[in-house]
Amino acid sequence: MLSYVVRRLLYALPILVGVNLITFVLFFYVNTPDDMARLALGEKRVTQEAIDKWKRDKGYDKPRFYNPQATGLDKFTDTIFFTKSASMFALDFGKADDGRDIGQEIRIRMGPSLAIAIPTFVLGLACYVTFALILALFRATCVDFAGVVLCVIAMSVSGLFYIIGGQYLVAKLWNLVPISGYADGLNAWRFVALPVAIGVIGGIGSSTRWYRTIFLEEIGKDYVRTARAKGLSEAQVLVGHVLRNALIPILTGVVVVIPLLFLGSLLMESFFAVPGLGSYTIEAINNQDYSVVRAMVFLGAVLYVLGLILTDVSYTWVDPRVRLD
Amino acid sequence: MPFKPVVLWTDALIFLLVAAVCALAWQMRRREHLREPWRKVARSPMGMVSAVVLAVFVAIGLLDSLHFRPRLPGSEANFAVDTLSVLDVMLAHLRTRPETTYSAPLATRLYARETVELPDGRQARIFPRLKHGGAHLTDPEAEWAVDVARRTIVGLALAALAWNLLTGVAVTWRAARLGQSWHACWNAIWRGETEMPWRAMLIAAGFILLVAAPMLVLSAKYHVLGTDKVGQDVLYLSLKSIRTGLVIGTLTTLVMLPLALLLGIMAGYFRGWIDDVIQYLYTTLNSIPSVLLIAATILVMQVYLETHPGLFETVQQRQDLRLLFLCLVLGVTSWTGLCRLLRGETLKLREMEYIQAARAFGVPHWRIITRHILPNVMHIVLIAVVMDFSGLVLAEAVLSYVGVGVDPTTISFGTMINAARLEMAREPMVWWSLASAFVFMLLLVLSANLFADAVRDAFDPRVVVRGGLPALSRPRRRPAVAT
Predict the structure, then answer these.
(1) How open is the CA angle B285-B289-B293, to the nearest 5 degrees?
(2) For A109-146, what is each residue's pLDDT tens digit?
(3) Which chain A residues are closer than 8 Å to B469 by Cβ?
(4) What is the reported pTM?
(5) How many residue pairs bridge chain A and chain B with CB atoms within 8 Å of each other?
(6) ipTM topping 0.95
(7) Which of A27, A144, A160 lies nearest to residue B398, judging by beta carbons?
(8) Which of A173, B85, B244, B286 could join B412 via S-S bond, C-beta 3.0 to 4.6 A?
(9) How far apart are CA A321 and CA B48, in angstroms?
């Protein structure tokens, strides 16, 4: 098991290097650092000195990949790519355009992101699996049909409308919770409740339908018939056998996103003005802050790769037949 | 010529797409095994009803894709700077009659009080009359209800007329084709005994006409769905948004399809190091959260466009380039899913006896791929394409909201919703633009979803009809952009 995880981590390395290269080429070849400087300085007729100074301040005045002026190993290390990208593997993200340390910012902002993402994830999973089980229990009846139709309608509504509608109804009309904002500590629940509820409701359509299909697929298998034949009730069959055996396909879709919860939801956080990583990313996009966007892309990739490994490891817990070594 | 045709990039691609679809349809007509699944789609009431709704949306989108520049009045060689579409001309009465600011649906007065000067020189704070909405009424408070009712009834009558005409044409055509009497044919449709769900389709068309005709009649004198902050007609905005949604939904697949097909089949067919490289490529792309990758790419594009202002002559060209670029980016981030599916299917297919036989006979690789593998993975491609459509329309709205979608001046559901967000905070609330965006988007995405289900049920060989519930039972892939 341990050797397997280590091997997977080693496999992850080229992927992360690839991600880093993609973003680097994207950011430094489509637009030259000169373009970025001109845009950041915000004037049409910027002097070359101002551009050079901006580049020197940001550390963009070096060659991109290979520095012929340097000596020895510095030929490769004294470049933009090395100084801006290699340090990311040590999770050192450098400074944002406003001078603040990105790593520090991430540490502060992950709290609010997690406070919303984890309850949404857990409650959502519980709700969706329950609803899907109910639909599977009533399969091929009016209940099932109505449920599926409702799911299709629910998934045809844009997530934006769930947020706008929920904010209007609960926060503005009924005045139950504040419209937006965030507080630290235990007071946070008042700010967290609405985004979590909306997050769960917004995902109901597609997820319930997805899980229902997984369950129906399992129900068609032989062991279910055997279980029924030995006299178990339909509910017992569903919960005791089908749910257990459907865990592998469910895990495949679910565990991958667990590390990504960390990044929060862009939409939810910007609508509710939660100072998390999602809104941080949106701000960075609007301010055209490259370093932050690159850091977030890299962080996202790291977490995704971790999620993949976690998924494989979790298989061994639910299915003893799976051996990873 | 009184106008100069303009072909924007997205227009050209749209018509290319239409041509491709027509060519494919013609090909399929001649092949029995390809016609059969489509017959199955045609037999599903849900699928056909949604197809009717989709057809209306597509028609609007196509009309909005025929662009031209009108000749300036009084000059021979000069054309207007603004590029118009055929839809713009048809809706000229909506486009060219802006109010000053918000007005409620069918209102005759502005939504906010304004200080106006009365004829006798005094000033008063009243709700001023609209410049265009209900301007033909002398005493709006007294005449409004009668006028609206009268116009609605005229609209309903027109709808009834149009529906009768449509039904007449449909029944006559069918009767002529089957060699039945007109009456027998009508009876069959009316009792729902036809193989294709004609009755459901005609009812759906009837509903659309019942809503659309009164709206069109009323729109001649009123703002049916109200106006937005700068006084633009919301009905016009909603209709214009349809093209943006359709372009994103269709062109993105056009971008992603060649990549996914080529790489997926190559990986599965050749295996070895080619497979390794391609797998590495899509795992790497996949491991970047798609919203972030899209955001990063658009950010770069934005800077590029801002530092190269000489790339386009008109505002429309800039909007169009940005739209096209968004399709490209979405395509690049979404080919990985289909690629993986195709790789898996090809891995399976290449071990089949007939392909082994072809290889043993020394048939060249490219011919095996085009003759044997490609046709056999087409159902997966088709299912993936129709399934992705609705997800992409939804993604457009979200991305435009986040600020990395279409150009802020492009009319789209995303920009509409974005503007509506500030209106929510107004007191009293301006609800109509949000509501229209909601309804139009729901109709488009819902019908696309239902149609996609019908197509998948017909083409997916694994679908087994379960207890009278053939539709709505297979898994669908997760949406392209998760936020």
Answers:
(1) 70
(2) 998 999 899 999 999 999 999 999 999 998 889 999 99
(3) 139-140, 144-145
(4) 0.89
(5) 160
(6) no
(7) A160
(8) B244
(9) 46
